[in-house]
């Protein structure tokens, strides 16, 4: 299915039903009093997260949504039926913005919890409501009010604990396939990953976290080059970022310069992302011939970046070092969630 993470739609809440003008007309009661009922409230528009959805593609084809109108009141003091509410299902992690004001109306994160986006109109009053000691036969009613109408911008930001950053062909897709159930596409050409891919990493029978593979970044990504700039926003919800670096690139490029390019693009796009915990993951160490070569290459990269954070040397292909990486990630995520509780 095509991955779409932005859409613009219009939603209309239902109008409230009008109040009824009616008088009691029964045999032997020649001057019955007012019996006009109230209208029904208009239906409201809600958004609700669904774990069955992972893209906004459906909103590219259907852009207008409307809740039900309330029925008008009737004689016999009968109240009109309330308009049907409309519940729109969206992927977990969808942000709903008002196009006209820019206001964030809802962050749809919890499945089964509807979030009100457009309020239905209120019911009108029947003439029974206007009866008083000085006005026994009121002919006054009130109309129902219109429901809210909004132009909305939907923006999907995937909910992941760990985000993978790196140049194309750094081995991010191979890593997420190796440690999770993800079926991310893997090939030996750049930009194999065309959209964010999620994988659930289980470290025990009752502990797991979600890892997101973001399309590879290139120099100039923050200004629109390549593919990754479109998906950097998905990193905003992560707990930790992994800089995945190819220690033995086939094009003989400098891993240090590659890492610096990624850090620069991250800072240009959103400096706040640099405040997140960031770990260095040196991938493809199996491509280096011996332990001495590995140690030398790791030291050269760490020193070249003046890296002060954690460093992991792994091989996503053979699995070397990946288990320790996952255990360490789970420990950090648990600590961060406990501190937020």
TrEMBL record:
Q: Where is this region: Disordered?
A: 128-150
Q: What class of enzyme is it?
A: hydrolase
Q: Which cofactor does it need?
A: Mg(2+)
> Cross-referenced Pfam families, in alphabetical order?
GTP1_OBG, MMR_HSR1
Keyword Transport present in the record's keywords: the answer is no
Q: So where does GTP get bound?
A: 166-173, 191-195, 213-216, 283-286, 315-317
Give any single GO term for biological process.
Answer: ribosome biogenesis
Q: Which domain of life is it from?
A: Bacteria
**Tell me, what is one Gene Ontology molecular-function annotation carried by this entry?**
GTPase activity
Q: Which residue windows does the record flag with biased composition (Polar residues)? A: 129-144
Cellular localization per UniProt: Cytoplasm
Alphabetical GO CC annotations of the entry are: cytoplasm
Annotated residues for binding of Mg(2+) = 173, 193
Which keywords accompany this UniProt record?
Cytoplasm, GTP-binding, Hydrolase, Magnesium, Metal-binding, Nucleotide-binding
EC number(s) on record?
A: 3.6.5.-
- Ranges for the Obg domain? 1-159
Residue intervals of the OBG-type G domain: 160-334
Alphabetized SUPFAM superfamilies for the sequence: Obg GTP-binding protein N-terminal domain, P-loop containing nucleoside triphosphate hydrolases
Where does it primarily localize?
cytoplasm
Q: Family membership, please give it.
A: Belongs to the TRAFAC class OBG-HflX-like GTPase superfamily. OBG GTPase family.
Under the subunit heading, UniProt states: Monomer.
Function in brief? An essential GTPase which binds GTP, GDP and possibly (p)ppGpp with moderate affinity, with high nucleotide exchange rates and a fairly low GTP hydrolysis rate. Plays a role in control of the cell cycle, stress response, ribosome biogenesis and in those bacteria that undergo differentiation, in morphogenesis control.
Q: What is the protein named?
A: GTPase Obg
């Amino acid at each position: 299915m095509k991955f779409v993470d932005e859409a613009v739609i219009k939603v209309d809440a239902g109008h409230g039903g009008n109040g009824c003008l009616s008088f009691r007309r029964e045999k032997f009661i020649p001057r019955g009093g007012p019996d006009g009922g109230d209208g029904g409230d208009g239906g409201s528009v809600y958004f609700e997260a669904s774990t069955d959805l992972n893209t906004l593609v459906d909103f590219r084809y259907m852009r207008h949504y409307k809740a039900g109108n309330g029925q008008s009141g009737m004689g016999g003091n009968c109240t009109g039926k309330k308009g049907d509410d409309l519940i729109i299902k969206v992927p977990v992690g969808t942000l709903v913005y008002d196009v006209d004001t820019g206001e964030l109306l809802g962050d749809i994160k919890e499945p089964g919890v509807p979030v009100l986006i457009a309020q239905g109109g209120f019911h009108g009053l029947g003439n029974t409501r206007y009866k008083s000691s000085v006005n026994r036969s009121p002919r006054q009613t009130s109309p129902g009010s219109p429901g809210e109408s909004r132009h909305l911008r939907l923006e999907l930001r995937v909910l992941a604990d760990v985000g993978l950053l790196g140049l194309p062909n750094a081995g991010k897709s191979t890593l997420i396939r190796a440690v999770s159930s993800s079926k991310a596409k893997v090939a030996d050409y750049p930009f194999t990953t065309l959209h964010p891919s999620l994988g659930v990493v289980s470290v025990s029978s009752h502990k797991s976290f979600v890892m997101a593979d973001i399309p590879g970044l290139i120099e100039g990504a923050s200004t629109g080059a390549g593919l990754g700039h479109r998906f950097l926003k998905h990193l905003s919800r992560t707990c930790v970022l992994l800089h995945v670096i190819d220690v033995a690139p086939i094009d003989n490029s400098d891993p240090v310069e590659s890492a610096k390019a990624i850090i620069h693009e991250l800072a240009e796009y959103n400096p706040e992302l640099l405040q997140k915990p960031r770990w260095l993951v040196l991938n493809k160490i199996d491509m280096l011939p011996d332990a001495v070569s590995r140690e030398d290459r790791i030291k050269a990269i760490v020193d070249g970046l003046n890296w002060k954070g954690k460093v992991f040397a792994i091989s996503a292909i053979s699995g070397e070092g990946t288990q320790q990486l996952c255990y360490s990630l789970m420990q950090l995520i648990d600590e961060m969630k406990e501190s937020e509780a």
